[in-house]
Amino acid sequence: MQYWYNVKTGQVEDDDNKSAGENIMGPYGSRDEASRALETAREKTEAWDEEDRRRREEDGLD
Question: I need a labelling partner for 25 at 20 to 30 A (CA). Which of 2, 7, 42, 51 fits?
Answer without folding.
Answer: 51
